[in-house]
Amino acid sequence: MNIIEVKNLSKSYDNFQAVKGINFTVEKGEVFGFLGPNGAGKTTTINMLTGLAKPSSGEITIAGENGIDGIKKVQQVIGIVPDESNLYDDMSGFDNLVFCASLYGMKKSLREKRATELLKQFSLDDTGDRPFKAYSKGMKRKLTIAAGIIHSPEILFLDEPTTGIDVESARQIRRMIKELNQKGTTIFLTTHYIEDAERLCHRIGFIVTGNVIKVSKVEKLMRDAQQDNIVEFRTDKNNLDLKDQLLSTFPDISILSQSKNCIRISSPFSIELMPFMQFFEGLNIKISEAKIIHPSLEEVFVKITGIEINKLKKEQEGQKR
Ligand SMILES: Nc1ncnc2c1ncn2[C@@H]1O[C@H](COP(=O)(O)OP(=O)(O)OP(=O)(O)O)[C@@H](O)[C@H]1O
């Protein structure tokens, strides 16, 4: 059963179209990830789904309600964790949670009980009385997630849940997301971390320059990818000039990545190493290593989006975790 349905959804800012008529569905109970590079339209989409931005055109249905005209009703059954926290700096962790609970109309006794429960669940029970501004980045993100689920929503929207925090906090957050999902919460998250998409999501929508170019189960993406053969050659000399020559000599291959001394090729057919060795030898280039690569979601991402892994990695490194 679809809990989210999006049809021809677009958003323009002045003359710039940030989201270009996208379509996708999210099934009840799944973790659905929107994976794409910086500026792809992930935040714009999540903002439209949660009522923080008004679509320019298109339709949204969430939990059977109209997600545009009926957004107030929808907001009762969804939780929102924005990429930048919306909690109050001077309030304590506990008070922030109690305050959020009051915004959802929860009874006073229930608010405090739930806030205490969540602080414990997120290992923040020792710091619940500290002001939010005194929290570390990882603690802030955890409290923001706790605030997003204070009213036990059916669907949780998380925008870049592990960006800008340390590795251990990111791991804890991934674990929490999994636990929430196991208890029945449908999760919609955005990320530009391939590892988050791979570890957390049942299905992934690839979004690039405002277009959803593919939606698929992670398992299926991996299965399809295994059908490709990938080999990496390490060369003793610069191979960067050889791209065209390689592609004309071996028309069935594509080049996945290339650096001065390393080239990674893929082919839908099995790759015989000998003709490649002879090719390089003929150019007086020695192969120091040739190894078969088992495709990762990174390779799948490159194949689908055409975006070089190195470019995406640079973006990821640019965003301190
Ligand atoms: N308020 C705005 N006014 C004008 N342009 C905007 C506005 N918000 C977003 N954009 C543009 O829309 C495009 C999509 O932005 P969005 O924030 O949705 O991308 P994103 O995929 O979430 O990127 P990131 O991973 O960097 O957060 C970008 O080109 C961005 O500059």
UniProtKB/TrEMBL annotation:
Database matches in PROSITE patterns: ABC_TRANSPORTER_1 (PS00211), ABC_TRANSPORTER_2 (PS50893)
Signal sequence region: none
UniProt KW keywords: ATP-binding, Nucleotide-binding, Transport
Pfam family, one: ABC_tran
UniProt xrefs under Gene3D superfamilies: P-loop containing nucleotide triphosphate hydrolases
InterPro entries: AAA+_ATPase, ABC_transporter-like_ATP-bd, ABC_transporter-like_CS, ABC_transporter_ATP-binding, P-loop_NTPase
Protein name per its UniProtKB record: ATP-binding cassette domain-containing protein
Organism listed in the record: Isachenkonia alkalipeptolytica
